[in-house]
Amino acid sequence: MKKHLYEIACALTLCGLVSVSGCAGNGKALTEQIANTEKSIVAARDGNASINAPLELKLADEKLQAAKAAADKNEYDQARNLLEEAQVDADLARAKSGSAKAQQFRDSIKALLKEIEKGQKAQEIYYY
Q: Looking at residue 4, what is its pLDDT?
C-alpha cells in the first residue's frame, strides 16, 4: 500500500514538474513574441505609420496591450492569438506607410519631369 502511494506521489510530482516546465517554456516563447511584436510596432511608427496608417498602428498597439494582459492572467493561447493579430496590423501599417511614401516620391518625380519639360520647351522657343 505504501509503495502504491509512493508511486502515485512520484507520478503527480512528475506531472507537476512537466506542467511547470511547459508553462515556463510558454512564458519564454511568449516573451520573445511580445518583444518581436513591440519591435514591429516601433518600426511601423518610425516609418511614419502614425501619419499614413494611424488606425492599423492603433489596433496593433491595443492588441499588444491586450496580449500582455492575457499573458499576465496565464491565458497563453489568447495572448498568442492577440500577438499574431497585432503583428499583422503592424505589418499592414508599415506596408501602407511605405506605399504612401512611394506615392509621394512618384508625385515628386512627375512634378520634376513637368518642370524639365517646361524648361526644354522654353529653350526651344528661345532658340527659334
A: 46
